[in-house]
Design brief:
alpha+beta, 599 residues, seven-stranded mixed beta sheet, 17% strand, 46% helix
């Protein structure tokens, strides 16, 4: 039955809900929420001042579906879930970071200081979240300098016979071998805890009191160690942290625009301490207003992550429904504020400057990438070239063969679309067979209508692998996709690569300083890196398992006990006969067999 727009709008209620705009193919173009469905949906067809982007979307609408909800907050939650599931082409989209990093102090007798992602546990203490891994790891390094808390895995800690290198460079007090008492170690952990909570003043007072007491008791070495801790603390405060006078937990979110592109900068303050920031670039945001971009970010980001009590925004928002929803989610009141002054205004100004800086940097990078891409388009006579997929094979003497596929699209490497393929069922070292398997597994899905079609396929290999690629595409009826082999040139030096094209007998030779060649090298090198990292992981796992599997009497449980006790195969290899015999399930006779097999 033909969709009657006027009749449909007339039938809509003045109730909160979610609407979905669909095209003639049934694909969802846009998902939105409304406090009053009838007024909101009708506005798309009544306004004359809508943006060209929205006008284009409206011209493709063939059908509209709605879902009525009990409240605007409930509509917001449903809208966000649908956007993440459907990824409509006209909605502003933000990449979903599954988790942000934390710093954890474990609940052991001698707690461990560690970088952590994932679900939290009540037996440990977590600090954060941090906006990126660099900020978290940098904080760990600073805490090591001041308090020298262990960072080693439990398996390593339980099996040390002498202090490790970290003790020698004054980054650990070596509790593993009893060079610090549990009481003194607990004091260092307490001070690290206070600093992570944003209470450096309390740490300063405690360290100074302890130093004075040690000096009065003529414990001069202890007093000197505390003096050094105080000095390190002051240095860290001056160089690394922006401290607040109040123990505030807040996120600062600023959006900036440059030549139609948007950037959201997210900065995190915990316990009054500025932990760092992260710049995020949305998709499908061209022509959108700053408040729309900001609202999209807040909804998509915070409905999956922990929320502080205060969120500061660079643009005023009508966010009552979002505040209500986030408050229910977190179990505490959440405020979203724009009109602030003093220190908080400085935080907002800094976040806005960082967003603009990120936009300028991105623009500069894109200019260089565009120049490279244009040159490659000219060299290959492919004026529409945008998406490149590149394949590489990695193995060691035929062992643990892995194929990689990396994607370059819209002037950037798209890491979320990278794929690895574990190759099996071929003769070891047969790169052509490995390439055949990887290409077939990749593009049989494309033949079935799944995935994106590349504008160019790069094969990191010579004529043999290129020939195999031609055969696979012919078998899958995808011969219209251009292919190119990248063969290493004379002496395997960068800049001397030979570019093999199926339609030409002679290879294409670009000059070493040609921007087109630089783009090919960039994509090829990334495929090589991605393949090698996958191969090394697979090889390491296979070797660890296979060496112990070859020993009769060592089953899965005993292998697991050995690896857990000594922290890996290297630890098992270094263990003495007596140490092996102490592992649960390992008799002296079996320990002798293991020792002889490994040595």
């Amino acid at each position: 039955m033909e969709f009657d727009l006027k009749l449909f709008i007339a039938s809509l209620p003045l109730l909160p809900g979610v609407y979905r705009m669909l095209d003639s193919q049934g694909q969802v173009l846009y998902v939105g929420k409304a406090g009053q469905l009838k007024k909101r949906v009708a506005s798309y067809f009544q306004r004359s001042n809508i943006s060209p982007r929205i006008s284009l979307m409206v011209s493709h609408i063939e059908r509209i579906e709605v879902t009525v909800t009990r409240s605007e907050a409930e509509a917001l939650l449903l809208e966000n879930n649908l956007i993440k599931a459907l990824k409509p082409r006209y909605n502003i989209l933000f990449r979903d970071d599954k988790s942000y990093p934390y710093i954890v102090l474990t609940g052991h007798a001698f707690p461990r200081l560690a970088y952590y992602r994932g679900a939290t546990s009540k037996q440990h203490q977590y600090f954060g979240p941090y906006p990126n891994s660099h900020a978290a790891k940098e904080s760990i390094q600073l805490l090591q300098k001041i308090f020298r808390i262990r960072t080693c895995e439990d398996s390593t800690f339980s099996n040390r016979a002498r202090p490790c290198l970290l003790h020698q460079i004054h980054r650990c007090t070596a509790p593993c071998v009893g060079l610090i008492s549990q009481q003194d170690y607990a004091t260092d952990v307490r001070n690290a805890n206070l600093l992570l909570q944003g209470k450096p003043g309390e740490v300063d007072v405690l360290l100074r009191q302890a130093m004075e007491q040690a000096a009065e008791a003529q414990q001069y070495e202890q007093a000197a160690a505390l003096r050094d801790q105080l000095h390190a603390l002051h240095t860290v405060q001056q160089k690394q942290f922006m401290e607040s006078g109040r123990a505030t937990d807040a996120d600062i979110v600023a959006v900036a625009e440059l030549d139609g592109a948007h950037c959201v900068n997210l900065a995190m303050v915990r316990g009054g301490r500025h932990l760092g920031d992260k710049s995020i670039f949305p998709q499908n945001a061209e022509g959108q207003a700053a408040d729309e971009v900001l609202h999209a970010f807040l909804a998509q980001h915070y409905l999956n992550h922990s929320v502080p009590p205060l969120i500061l925004t660079s643009t005023p928002l009508a966010a009552e429904a979002l505040e209500e929803l986030l408050g229910v989610q977190e179990g505490h009141k959440v405020q979203i504020r724009h009109s602030v002054s003093g220190e908080r205004r400085q935080w907002l100004d800094m976040a806005l400057k960082n967003a603009l800086l990120a936009l300028h940097q991105q623009a500069g990078q894109q200019v260089g990438q565009l120049a490279r891409l244009e040159k490659l388009r000219e060299a290959l006579a492919l004026p529409q070239l945008s998406r490149i997929e590149c394949f590489d094979i990695s193995h060691t003497m035929g062992e643990a063969t892995v194929a990689s596929c990396v994607v370059y699209d819209s002037l950037a490497m798209r890491t979320a679309e990278y794929r690895r393929y574990n190759i099996s069922g071929i003769t070891g070292g047969d790169d052509c067979a490995a390439m055949r398997q990887a290409l077939f597994r990749r593009y049989q899905k494309l033949q079935a209508g799944e995935g994106k079609r590349p504008d160019l396929i790069l094969i990191d290999g010579g004529a043999g692998q290129l020939s195999v690629a031609c055969q696979v595409l012919e078998q899958l009826d995808l011969m219209e996709i251009p292919l190119m082999g990248v063969a290493k040139g004379v002496e395997r030096k960068p800049g001397l690569e030979q570019l093999l094209l199926p339609q030409y007998e002679k290879p294409l030779q670009l000059s070493p300083d040609d921007p087109a060649l630089h783009l090919i090298q960039q994509v090829r090198d990334e495929a090589h890196r991605f393949a090698i990292s996958g191969h090394r992981a697979k090889r390491g796992k296979a070797r660890t398992t296979s060496m112990l599997e070859e020993i009769s009497g060592v089953g899965e449980r005993r292998r697991r006990n050995l690896l857990a006790r000594f922290g890996g195969l290297q630890g098992v290899y270094q263990a003495s006969l007596e140490e092996l015999a102490q592992v649960d399930g390992i008799s002296l006779a079996l320990a002798e067999k293991i020792y002889q097999q490994l040595h």
